[in-house]
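Protein 1 of 2
SEQ + STRUCT:
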Amino acid sequence: MSSTTLEPKPSRGGAHAGTARAGQLPGDGTSAGPGPSFPRVLNSEFIKFRTLLSTVILLGCTVLVVVGFGALSAWGTGQFSEQALNDPEAAAAFAAQGGDIAVGVPTSGIAFAQLILGSLGVLLMSSEFSTGMARSTFAAVPKRTPAFVAKLLVVMVTAFIVTAVSVYIAGLVSVPILDNYDLKLDLASSQSVKMLLINSAYVAAVAAIGMALGTLLRNSAGGIMTLVGLFFVAPIAFQLIPGDFFVQTRKYLPGNTVEPMTAVQHVPDTLEAWQAALVLGAWVVVPLVLAALVLKKRDV
């Protein structure tokens, strides 16, 4: 009796048909390298972002602060306008404000919103290292850059939307308060829309700077304190220190770029609107590029 050896038939895909092709993962036809596709990374980062209790608390605080300061500013503006009727000095100060003074009421809480959402940007990245989650994140995404970009998109889009919604609600709350003082606020006017969009974009930029600081420093307290120093301490210090150098340099601080971009007319001794936009863009791009480069070179 003779034995017969059966040769296995070659598969259509060749010898490696049973394994994933080079540069692809099983079940993922969109990957161009090791790790999951970018949409999956983005979805993963969004899930992590929205399931953190600290995120919910900070976003809720942002809404409360912006709406609360909007209502308080509306009341203060109304009181100021009534005082101006009987006080010549107050009337002169009121007239010196220029333009429609009520249009800036809904955005009066932006200074605090930028601190909250900037801190959120810091925590989004620094917590990855303090909790050890970075090892799991970068084991799943070895290139690291997709995870970094995904986090950046999540925090910037969220900051923009939350700020815009908060400013609009603050406007709705402020309208009846201002009406009691015969002050009109048109939320549909071009200047109101401009204020809403530019301030929302500005806060999103601050959140991006915060994320860059969290990546570079890998420490929540250090990143938040650096953010506070840059946006709150430095402008005051540069204003108090005498000398033309500090007067001119103060214009280029990121916290002083939003006013020229939202002003109805150019304010003397400030940057032009397009110059302020370029300066703010540089403050965002440079730290983010440095953070991305450091992230790829450092160990987790």
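Protein 2 of 2
SEQ + STRUCT:
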Amino acid sequence: MNSKPASPPLTPMPAWLRSPLGRASELSTVQRIIKQRGIHTICEEGRCPNRGECYAQGTATFLLMGPTCTRACSFCQVDKGHAPMPLDPQEPQKVAESVQLLGLQYVVLTSVARDDLPDQGAGWFAQTMAAVRHLNPKTQIEVLTPDFWGGTGGADAQQQRIATVVQAQPACYNHNLETVRRLQGPVRRGANYERSLRVLAQVKAMDATMPTKSGLMLGLGETEAEIIEALHDLREVGCDRLTLGQYLRPSLAHLPVQHYWPPEEFDRLGAIARDLGFSHVRSGPLVRSSYHAGQAPS
């Protein structure tokens, strides 16, 4: 049975979690390009603590299919709770133009969960990748997808949706486990630990050469033993790359932080992950799924 983390007393945020915002001019350049085209980034919608650093480098992670999610994960800042917007038929072209204007050499495409769509948005990922490549043929594209499980069709439909994205040949296929097995229920409403592992396993079965990646948030009440178990589970399905970061509570309506893991513990867990065979590991309090993604080995 899944156990919901109890609410600890509110504690001040540790000093190691305070990141610089970046220069206003660099922030505004990316924000202007995004807002002018009516598209979205997870940097803004998710209030990523690294957006100042990433914007200063002219990078961003694009959030496809609108800013409203059909699920209600209790850790996530992305909008939810009402009907998502219809797809903007110009969004793939708008994203491609933004990548061109920002001069990105490596771009990450992610999305809200769209359980209302027949293919859960898999075809939209493929369309957007094609549009980006048309204007930016040298740009590498990483995808960070939902589990494509919803609506009708079950496991067979999920497999076909994953295949649609794999066949578009991203440089890396990322799908986040988010938390340890025990905490999946209260943290990831509508998602499932084994199902997420199956996404990563199916990618490898379809294309053994395609790098796969996943990430965990720490601080939700997990134990070190549970973290290490999750790392073993990811390696068993061939996951190549890993991110470990601190969960930060977006608002009082979200799950509370149970524990702030200090930088030295992230360093130690990162070393354990490397010993387990992950080829690329980012582990630190402010690390997020797309943090320095373009610096991964090609």
